[in-house]
Amino acid sequence: MRNSEVIVVGAGIAGLTSAAILSKQGLSVNLIESHTQSGGCAGTFKRKNYIFDVGATQVAGLEKGGIHSRIFNFLDIPSPEATILDPACIVDLNDGGKPIPIWYEKSKWIAEQEMQFPGSGKFWKLCALIHQSNWIFANNNPVLPVSNFWDFSQLLKALVPSNLVTGILLKSTIFDLLRICGLSNNERLIKFLNLQLKLYSQEDVHNTAALYGSTVLQMCQQPHGLWHLKKSMQSLSESLESSLRKTEANLIFGQKVNSINFDEENMCWKVSANSKKKSFIYQAKDLIYTAPPQSLLNHLKDPLKRKKKYQNRINNLPDPSGAVVFYSALKREHIKKTFSNHYQFVSKEFTSVFVSISDDGDGRAPNGEVTLIASIFTKTKNWFDLDKQTYLKKKNDFMKKLSLELESQFDIDPENWLHRELATPLGFEKWTNRPNGIVGGLGQNPDIFGLFGLSSRTPFEGLWLCGDSIYPGEGTAGVSQSALMVSRQILASRGIKNFSL
Q: Among candidates 369, 333, 355, which has minimal Cα distance to 406?
């Protein structure tokens, strides 16, 4: 039996961050990870001389006042070396118009908006006003959704007058904003927004919550911005691991959680886990669960039987997306000149393809070569329950089709690929232990965002949810905000009620 004050399940960015904050505050922490390394969907893997980012390839929140910056300052660890992405992305609608660079400098982006989408200024100004209100609110550390009086008190403290105005849009979508601004028939703008929103909310203009979408559409611009980590995405995890070592938190790799139960006699949570050779039991008053909440159906079987309403809610969560990811490498001279690390383009075959290209000297490829990662969304159910031969044929077909799309978009000759491989939802399930290899958490529609989302407080005292399915959503910045929120809730339950960064 291994005892601690807190158990954290999952060493992705959410688990590492919550463990680091609580350990820094003096609590003993056991952090359990089934993989042999941390990072989860923001981790990396190596092939030959190449380092590939598994899923996430860009970071928000490293700027002064950003969530990562605030957390690193609190933990007294240096931020990973990173450069601002400018443009953050170049979006090619393949409609005969010019590709759209999303500039970091506000004035350049405003000029680009008017050139690419004439007459759209009202929409972008409305998004900017909503985002400004959201940003003040988020930095005031609200707790959402509200589950008890303390949560409610934190929500009230976070509110500012502008939130009362934007609050009328609580159940609105991005399409509602377009309609307000007289742009509901602007097909090119809607096409662009659909591509971008799918990346960050897993929904389109008709289904993305207005309050969420307005913010993600503004995150590329100053004073925020998206960042390219110099070494790899793994450097974010390595920084957080350094804090855990300083505070002597226990980071345990290679142990897979089998079950979670509440010990009525000792009034604590027990986690059963096993490595290849041994079984382990961990015990703590508080347990932070950073795996997708759908995984609770397997890990929390006995307690869920006594909470049918909660079990049904988990069962009825919307189906998240899966991803097919193409990992490749080639010589820089064999790809047309690029002006951004990130591209997104419309594809007849796949609707949208998102591409990340490494920088010279960023550690991902040898000098003179680049890694190129391309990802598309897919329905996870389309990849399971296939016999081996059918699965391999389907995977090979996707590899060929994605190769052709990239060769056409970036003027690549087929013989110039130095490395190619493909990951499907089956691969992501094996890598991350996420059920069916789901990625990105829950789609941020008005019925699941903010006040209406899944609470970090479960009906079981001392059991907390954290990660990309909990407010405020996906991305390393989002899950870090979630980790801060759950850490504050745990500390408040232990009498430390005014903790903030």
A: 355
